[in-house]
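Q: For a teaching session next week I want to show students how multiple molecules come together into a single three-dimensional assembly. I've collected the sequence lines for a complex. Could you give me the predicted structure tokens for the whole thing so I can convert them for display?
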Amino acid sequence: MVVKVYGPVFASPKRVLVCLVEKEIEFEGVPLDLLKGEHKDPEFLKLQPFGTVPVTQDGDYVLYESRAIMRYYAEKYKSQGTDLLGKTVEERGQVENWLEVEAHNFDPHVFNLTLHVMFSSKLGIPRDENVIKESEEKLSRVLDIYEERLSKSKYLAGDFFSLADLSHLPFTQYLVGPIGKEYMITSRKHVNAWWNDISSRPSWQKVLQLYPAPL
Amino acid sequence: MATPVTVHGPPLSTAVSRVLACLIEKDVPFQLIPVNMAKGEHKSPDFLKIQPFGQVPAFQDEATSLFESRAICRYICEKYPEKGNKGLYGTNPLAKASIDQWVEAEGQSFNPPSSVLVFQLAFAPRMKLKQDQSLISQNETKLEKLLGVYEKRLGESRFLAGDDFSLADLSHLPNAHYLVNAAEREELFTSKKNVERWWGEISSRDSWKKVVDMQKQST
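A: Of course. Below is the structure for the complete assembly, covering every listed component.
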């Protein structure tokens, strides 16, 4: 079965894409233009009632929320491709811990930067310099904690690459690229080494080639 | 009797109470170590060792040390599948995926606006902080719209992820409880038929009543 992934050029769907590549699962991107508001079309809302991407369709099976989708496929295909969940219940606990950190401590700030720096003019919303400044400050404090963590541990959940690291790929790629804040990563020795490691994985390079960002 | 499972944090914290509800649903004995946030104990060097972001809760057992309430809940369910409510995190992969989808919806879409409202309406006055009316009104609008999606879902399904109470519903209890009981926003839930029914069911679970008792006793 080929898994359909809606909105592949956008960041959150890329979490799912890179996970599927790591797990050697075939997929097909289904274009959806958020910049034209296609995510608010009634047909799309039938699939994803919150009007966000990604959504996956695997035959009849529909799932949304990128981190839920990743968990499902990483577990379903545990014995195939890269193991992204750790080997024990305790390792899995660490993966969940740092995946939640990404969701609640990292993502909100980098999302605000993405919205205001990259997409505000395209979406017709005012670019708010205060939000940009505050988001950078908050993200900076979070990255200091990551620096400390990654000085003791090769990857976020331990010595193994996992969903927790993978989840950071799409928006960090924006941060070091179009958002223009690469220094936030390069100024931190261990964060920098970690970023170079995870972003140079063939799976991530493949996703970037297949679906370049919409800007 | 000593138990290896320890939760650090005040029961009044929404994130702490999420973990307490899960431990009680799963019948897993635990010790609660209070953390006095008014005195800044969550920023002490000792606490930062177990939770480097200086947030509550932190969790420890004989095997590992964790933080982030939703991660702790998942760990408890995976470590003790045969204890207490066996279906809390699903008993098959599709059930589990549906639960994860709705836990994510809670974390990404329900938590942000409800947290702002709970802080502005319930905590700010008690802390003698000025309320931000525009923040209140923006987040009320967001939450109202979100609960419209929930209304439709709960017309198709008894609980969010399916026919059984799960982590997805549990995850909503802490913020919703404060909205209804401390922020005078019961109407958000009672103005929608299916949401009202759902709220009535999940908030009257024994496990949640025990958490509310723990919260009352801690004041």
